[in-house]
Structures are given as C-alpha cells and as structure tokens.
Specification:
This protein is α+β, with helices and mostly antiparallel strands and 289 residues long. Helix content is 55%, strand content 10%. The termini are far apart.
C-alpha cells in the first residue's frame, strides 16, 4: 500500500476512534440529545400532574372538614330548632316556650293538645323548643335511651325534624296533632310521620333526610342535653320565658297561673317585649315593662 494512502486511512480510522472514545458518533449524539430533552419534558409534566393531584386532594380534605362546621352552623344551637320567619319579629324578641316531653307520653299529648289553641292565637310572638327526657347513651343507636323504648326515641327525632323543617309554627302543630292521634304508631316506621308531614305542608324530602341522617340524631342529643342541664325529669313540663310554668303528670300541677289555653296566652303576651305589634288578642292582657 502507498504510504500516503496508508496514512490517510489511519487518520480516518484514528479520527473515528477518537469520535467513539468521546462517546457516540455525531449523529447518534444528536439523536441522544433529542431523547434526553423528551424524557426531561415528560418528567416535568409528570411532576406537575402529581403536584396538581396532591393540591386537589388537599382542597377536597379542607372542603370535607369545613362541611360539618357549616352544617353545624346551619343547624344552630339549642334554641334554633326551626327555620321559620313568620313575620318581622326577630327570633330573639319572641317568647321562648320550652316543652320537656316524650313523644309517646300521654301527658305530653295532653299538654300539646292544650297548646294547640295557644299556638293558633300567639304563634307570631312565640318560639318553641322541644327538650326530650331520656338518658344519654353513646352506645345507643340514637345516642340515648328512652323510657318508652326505641320507638319513642325515633318518634322524638321525627318531631324534632318536623320542627326544624316546618313552614311555620302552626304547620308544625298540625304535624304534632296528626301523629298524636296515633300515639301507638309513633316511631314505628315512617308511614305515619311522612303522611303527617305531607298533610301539615312540610317539605317531606327535607324532613325525611333529617330523620334518616345525622341531623335528626344531633338535634335529639342536643334536646336531651337541654333537659339534663335544666334538671327536668317529668314529662310533660313547660317553661315560658325561661321559667317553669306548669306540669302535666296524671293531672295538672305546679301551675300557679292556671293551665287553660287562655292562661298560657296571657302569660306569653305579658312576656313579649318586642317592638313589633303583638297579636290583637294580647290587647286583653297587660304587657311586661
């Protein structure tokens, strides 16, 4: 072989060797750079997707945590068992009438029937609260044990949900009168409660959701706690404006102001301190100053 050709060939070979020692030939290096860019881009996109998913779960967790608080705020405290706004009288100006009762108790039924006329006459200036007499028990299905059994606990929840989702106080009292006509069926299934809710004009969907979910049980526990705190153990007992007013227990007792409907109307009118005009019937009675 000619020496010049041999040198040229050796240079090419050496050059190729030098290229290979540096890594890859030029064309392969370019291709490798392209693949590395694509892989880098995919890694960045995958990282962004993971961060977005974590952020979404974080937001969802906060929403879930906020939901019970919002629900609790909506449900209100012990004095906020209903949503009605019968007129422009603010709830805090209305006269608080609290019933300590049991849904399947004959004495409670008698007292509630007596107050039917009271509600018709002065419902616009009174706010009703139900405090059920029972024994708190975290192991019980409803959170408490009732004197007349599990059906009574469920009946208590039905009444609280009807009060919570009433259109107005008279509509709740129509519901109460309806279920009280069948005391033996109170708390036994939902047929009676739903029929009475519909007849009273309640939102039956909201009422049923309340009785079947945590809202009703929460209202029930609060009502039992109210009775325990007040130290009332006799059904039926009524407080007007924060003071014990009367007891029905196999007969009326501890009723210094009387126990007729007009006696309760008189006391509610006298206790009303709002600036809005009271019902016309209150003109028959003096107002508290």
């Amino acid at each position: 072989m000619d020496e010049s050709r041999y040198l040229l060939h050796r240079i090419k070979v050496d050059g190729d060797d030098v290229e290979k020692m540096g890594g890859y030939p030029r064309r392969q290096r370019a291709r490798r750079r392209g693949w590395m860019i694509m892989i880098g881009a995919m890694v960045v996109l995958a990282t962004l997707a993971v961060l977005a998913a974590i952020g979404g779960r974080h937001l969802a967790v906060h929403k879930d945590l906020d939901a019970p608080a919002a629900a609790g705020h909506q449900a209100g405290g012990a004095n906020d068992q209903g949503r009605e706004s019968t007129n422009n009288i603010a709830d805090e100006k209305k006269v608080q009438v609290e019933f300590f009762v049991m849904s399947r108790c004959p004495d409670a039924v008698k007292m509630e029937q007596t107050f039917s006329r009271v509600v018709d006459a002065v419902h616009s200036i009174m706010e009703v609260q139900l405090s059920f007499i029972a024994k708190l028990d975290p192991n019980a299905t409803t959170g408490a044990v009732c004197k007349h059994g599990e059906h009574e606990c469920l009946g208590n929840i039905d009444e609280l949900c009807a009060l919570r989702h009433r259109l107005d106080l008279p509509s709740f009292w129509r519901f109460l009168g309806c279920v009280n006509n069948r005391v033996e069926d109170i708390g036994r299934g939902k047929d009676l409660a739903l029929r009475c809710a519909s007849a009273a004009g309640l939102d039956t969907a909201a009422f049923l959701a309340c009785t079947n979910q945590g809202e009703g049980r929460s209202l029930f526990r609060q009502s039992v706690e109210n009775a325990v705190f007040a130290g009332v153990e006799t059904s039926a007992t009524v407080f007007i404006a924060g003071k014990k007013r009367c007891v029905e227990d196999n007969g009326w007792r501890e009723c210094p102001g009387g126990y007729r409907p007009e006696d309760f109307i008189r006391d509610i009118c006298a206790a009303y301190k709002g600036s809005a005009p009271p019902p016309s019937i209150c003109a028959q009675y003096p107002r508290a100053v």
